[in-house]
Amino acid sequence: MAKRNILKMGDPLLRKKSRAVEIYDEKLHQLIDDMVETLHHVGGLGLAAPQVGVLKRVCIVEYDDKLYELVNPVLVKSSGKCVDNEGCLSVVGFRGLVERPEKIVVEYFDRNGTKHTQQAEGYFARVFLHEMDHLDGVLFADKMIKKIIDDD
Ligand code: ZN
Q1: Are 47 and 59 in contact (CB under 8 A)?
Q2: What is the DSSP string of 45-98?
Q3: What is the mean pLDDT of each run of 10 residues along the chain (152 residues)?
Q4: Which of 53, 109, 132, 149 matches a 20 to 30 Å C-alpha distance to 76?
């Protein structure tokens, strides 16, 4: 396993649309393992492959001590609205208030190509949606309704 560098806002790779994973091979497993190691090193709730410069539809979410590895995730249902505070490992110096759906259902594949369906709500749903936005080149900063400058 190896820790990877996290790209920062301004890097054009963060703005590209990622490609679907077609082959569930050792290379994919290595990417996911590296992303997990990187997330654990820097701390955070999630990380998407484009943030480490790989334009594949892969992201990880760690929430309530549970790790979710999402390959080719698709939002299949969403309802409600809520506004909360978000930050991003690729965005330095500020956070923002972003409106997102309150409840979602996401379908995705795990690293072995097995399909899963996950329901989520509140901040848990928010983390999924934030990471999935990265796969389409979207950052929270594009959607925020209020910018919150970090003091430190
Ligand atoms: Zn992010």
Answers
A1: yes
A2: SEEEGGGGT--BSEEEEEETTEEEEEEEEEEEEEE--EEEEEEETTEEEEEEEE
A3: 93 98 98 98 97 98 97 98 98 97 98 98 98 98 94 68
A4: 53
| Cα 23 to ligand 1 centroid, rounded to whole Å | 25
With a CB cutoff of 8 Å and minimum separation 6, the contacts of 26 are none
Verify whether residue 99 is a known catalytic residue.
no
Q: Which helix (H) or strand (E) holds 41?
A: helix 26-42
Query: Rounded to the nearest whole angstrom, what is the distance from the C-alpha of residue 80 to the centroid of ligand 1?
Result: 22
The CA 12 to ligand 1 mean position distance, Å, reads 15
Q: Which of 62, 69, 86, 131 is catalytic?
A: 131
pLDDT, position 150: 81
- CB atoms inside a 10 Å sphere around CB 77: 12
Amino acid 76: pLDDT: 98
Determine the Cα–Cα distance for residues 140 and 86; give it in Å rounded to an integer. 7
pLDDT at res. 131: 98
Tokens 């690293």 locate to 111
pLDDT tens, residue by residue, 14-26: 999 999 999 999 9
Distance 8 CA to ligand 1 centre (A): 10
